[in-house]
Amino acid sequence: DIRELTEERKKEILMVNNKMAENALRVLGIAYKRTTIDINNLSEEAVESNMVFLGLIGMMDPPREEAVKAVEICKQTGIKVVMITGDHKLTAVSVAKELGIYKEGDLVLTGEELEKMPDKELEDIVEKVTVYARVSPEHKLRIVRAWKKKGHIVAMTGDGVNDAPALKHADIGIAMGITGTEVSKEAADMVLADDNFATIVNAIELGRWIYDNIKKYLTYLLQANLVEILMLSVAVLFGFPMPLLPVQILYVNLATDGLPALALGVSPPDPDIMKRPPRDPKETIFTREVKSFLLRALIVEVPLLIWCFSASLPNEEFARSRVFITFILFELILALTCRSLKYTIFETRPHKFLLAAVSWEILLMLILISLPLSRQALGIVELDLTSFIWAIGLSLITLTSIEGTKFLLRKSSKTSSKK
């Protein structure tokens, strides 16, 4: 029974369509046409006219559970997630609510609205828009440009040929590895192998983790070497004999610095790694905390080592031996505390590789100072228990100064964030 599709009936169908879209369904309208003429002989306009409407079909494409968690993590890290889709506006908003992308008060733009909107107007409101619906790939380029004009670092995902300009223009273009075209992959900076948004967030975490470990590694080595250089320089300026012989310096640099530094390079991430805001792209690796650690080392460790050496004179061999073991313990304490530049040694305990490296260095030091042949090779003498107590005591002072520096840095960062 075929009936005429009246205006009233059209309104009812559109109401049903909107209701289905509000429930996060992708809606398709189904219609057919009867004809006795070969369809290949009909024009497109003729085929798509005078059709019989059958009904609406709603398809559910629920968000992945890990995507919801990933969006929440992005919020914690200060990363703003924006949805750009070809779906109906109501469907897009409903899905965005489920994902946690859209909240009341956010703006939603359609492709039609974007077409009528000048670039300047888009730039003014782009930070308030969280959902773009019924947009074409060409619109992505305008959105990227608007975000960049506001001074943001922009990452854009895409899979089609028409997405290539936006992927190329974004700071980080991300192409889909499964559904993406070769053109989009060539234009992108990286390819998402599993087409999963959560993988992008995992990559951000891994990138922060690697950056942090590089910073720990450099901070450890720079502190150790700067203290070494300044200690020798101060001793020469004040007319003291050399606190360490070349062979002793060589041992410290090759043996003591090596394994602990490598272990710091594979340290687990800090607990707050995905709760920090994005760092300034202009920021160098010599951050305030790195500079504070270097300054602390020069202020605390150099005077302690000079005092340790001068207090043990006039016996030069004995004084050098004391400084040698004290300096090694200083570096090992430093390695343990550089597990985190922010949290104390009790909050982020050293991991097994770091503990193994430090334990091996302590064992090796004890073997070297116990054997007459190795003592002779290194130019050191046998030490008494008092010398070891002396070295451990100075090391504890160093440990206290490092943990105190962390405490002051955290306190000052909290104060500045409140302001």
**How are the strands of the largest sheet arranged?**
3-5-4
Record field, number of beta strands: 8
Rough outline: rod-shaped
Mean pLDDT over the residues: 88
Q: Number of helix segments?
A: 17
In the predicted model, the low-confidence regions spanning at least 5 consecutive residues are none
- Helix vs. strand class: mainly alpha
- What helical percentage do the residues reach? 55-70%
Separation of the first and last Cα atoms: 72 Å
Radius of gyration: 33 Å
Order of helices and strands: HEHEHEHEHHEHEHEHEHHHHHHHH
Query: DSSP strand (E) fraction?
Result: 5-15%
Major sheet size, sense and barrel closure: 3 strands, parallel
Task: Give a brief description.
Helix content is about 60%, strand content about 10%. It has helices at about 5-20, 45, 65-75, 90-100, 110-115, 120-125, 135-150, 165-170, 180-185, 195-235, 245-255, 260-265, 290-310, 315-335, 350-370, 370-380, 385-419; strands at about 25-30, 50-60, 85, 105-110, 130-135, 155-160, 170-175, 190. A three-stranded parallel sheet has the order 3-5-4. Strands 6-7-8 form a three-stranded parallel sheet. A two-stranded antiparallel sheet has the order 1-2.
